[in-house]
Amino acid sequence: MAHYPAIEDHGAIGNLRTVGLVACDGTLDWLCLPHLDSPSVFASLLDARRGGRFRVAPAGEPRSGAQRYLDDTNVLETAFDGPGGRLTVTDLFPLEGSLDDPAETETEPAVNRLLHAEGGAVEAEIEWAPRFGYGDEVPEVVRTEDGWLAWAGTQTLALAGIGDDARVEEDGNGWVLRARLRLEGGQRRALVTRWGAEVPIARVEELQRRCDVTVAAWRDWVHKAAATGSRDWAKPHEELVVRSELILKLLTHADTGAIAAAATTSLPEEIGGVRNWDYRFAWIRD
Q1: pLDDT, tens digit, for every residue of 190-228?
Q2: Peptide bond preceding 102 in cis form (omega within 30 of 0)
Q3: pLDDT (tens digit per residue) in 42-90
Q4: How far apart are alpha carbons 138 and 172 in whole angstroms?
Q5: Through-space distance between the first and last CA atoms of the chain, rounded to whole angstroms
Q6: Which residues of 214-229 are buried (b: 16+ CB within 10 A; e: fewer)?
Q7: d(CA 72, CA 151)
Q8: Angle, alpha carbons 164-165-166 (nearest 5°)
Q9: Number of other CB atoms surrounding residue 249 within 10 Å
Q10: What is the DSSP letter of 20?
Q11: What kind and span of H or E run contains 215?
């Protein structure tokens, strides 16, 4: 059980089409692409050996970081304090435009991870191990001119931001890309993993721009209710109400308006129990 973080030790990111979960140890351990009801590409939340993961954390023994959402958004920060300095990983799906109208919302099936070192030099450890089809399909991992590709049949996931210093190893359950990045104090690095064969752009300036417009999109949406006065009733508990609004919006599929019961599937109500339904359905009764 040491390999399975508690569900409450996760933050959620998404783009109104799918949702990913990031554990306090820096592991993206649940993600389905390109949509919420698609098969998983990372699922170590369910199977630490065969599920696949995308981990970004300080090098050395795994440890938990402190997580928070940027105010009034679904942009997630995980901060690790160490003897050399602080490593902060900012995770998001890029969103741009009005979140009320899917025709005006620009997004892509890509997780953006922005690394920032503060106070001194830190060494970040990267582990990228895609597994398609809920862990049943183990892709090949190959180097391309601009990044890395994991592919199995017609399914492809790309990674940008890691150079030739990465190594690809077989861990007994499939191919794993591993790398270490040294960041000096104040330095930033950008990583992007994207569904499809197109290797994305992973430049710090571009990721910071995506982060800024994503923050603006979430805040514009959540502040509309406050501007109209329709949330006045919630003043004593407004922070909790706003967070509830944001997570419900995160679980809403932009094209249909359907709200999923949860972002995950197959998590048992109790360890060893038989109730492990697919909670990604939108239940009419609710």
Answers
A1: 999 999 999 999 999 999 999 999 999 999 999 987 777
A2: no
A3: 999 999 999 999 999 999 888 899 999 999 999 999 999 988 899 999 9
A4: 11
A5: 33
A6: bbebbeebbeeeeeee
A7: 36
A8: 90
A9: 18
A10: E
A11: helix 204-228
